[in-house]
Each structure stands twice: as C-alpha cells, then as structure tokens.
Amino acid sequence: MPASQGLCADQAIVLMSFLRCIDRVTSPFSNFGLGAVRTATKRAGGTIANHGSSPGKRLGVKKFSDQYVIPGNIIIRQRGTVFHPAANVGIGRDHTIFALIPGYVRFYKQKYMNGERKYVGVVRVRGETLPRDEAERGRDRYFGLKNLNAPLADAAV
Question: Are the CB atoms for 84 and 116 separated by under 8 Å?
Fold first, then answer.
C-alpha cells in the first residue's frame, strides 16, 4: 500500500490477513475449498403419491331418507361399516348397502355399547319408521310374489 494513506507495510499485512479470516468465516463453502458456489433460486418441490392421478371412489350416500328404491338399488357405498344394515337391506362384500325390496329409505341411530350405531333400512309404507315395533304393529312380511288371480293383459286363446 502506498505510504500516503498512512499505513505502514506491517499494518497492511495484518489487515490483509484479518480480511482473509473474515472471508473464511462468512463463506459457508470456504472450509471445503470450493470458493463461490451457485445456490438454488427455487426450493426443491416434493413428490406426491400416485402423482395426483388416483381417481375418486365415489363413496357416500346415494339414496337419501324418504327416497323410493327398488330391489338392487345402491343406498350407500362406504369403506367399513359406517352405516349398518337394518330391515330389508343387504350388505355387499365391499360394505355397500343395497335395497332388497321396493320401498322408502329410512335412517336411524341406536345405542350400541358405549356409543351409537347408524342404521339404514327400507320400509314399504312411506310414513313408517324404523326400528319397527313388532309387538305393536306385527311383522312386516314381503315375499315378492305375483298375484296369480289377477287378470292377464294378453290372454292367448
């Protein structure tokens, strides 16, 4: 350094070594001898399972309370037994609840152990409720039989 600035050679050497030490402390890559390293300008994005291409399974209630159903209509599609089968409904291998007779859908809750269970069933008469009081109203019998005494529409003679 020139003497006109007021620093002697010894002071300049001390200053230069001090600046080198500061540079080593501030640079995160100076310990590895890498010098200047270009860092990312955007953060790395994570991956998602199935890349978002897994379609929805269309679960849920398909027929609501007081809706008319025919045998075979799916009332609820579910994973596990969130709703349990009651009168005149069946349950499939994948816990799908479906109607066994024509009628109207009914939902109700009943105490079970320390909690409640949700049930779904089908009744033949629109105003009827579940669970049915069999002592008072008797059993509801539906056989799905044809009336053989009814006149035929096409009588082939």
Answer: no
Q: Is 83 left (phi over 0), alpha (psi -120 to 50) or beta?
A: beta
Strand order in the sheet with 60-61: 60-61, 74-77, 97-99, 89-91
The pair of three-digit structure tokens given for residue 62, joined into one six-digit string: 């398909």
What whole-number distance in Å separates Cα of residue 128 and Cα of residue 59?
Answer: 27
List helix spans (H) across the chain. Answer: 9-26, 134-137
Across the beta sheet with 83-85, the strand order is 68-69, 103-112, 115-123, 83-85
- Read off the tokens for 11: 């002071």
Give the position of tokens 């509801």: 140
| Mean pLDDT for back-to-back runs of 10 residues, the chain (157 residues) | 63 74 58 67 69 82 95 96 95 96 95 96 91 84 73 60
List beta partners, residue 122.
105
72's CB contacts (< 8 A; 6+ apart) are 98, 99
* H or E element in which residue 108 lies: strand 103-112
Predicted TM-score of the model (pTM): 0.59
- CA Rg value for the chain: 40
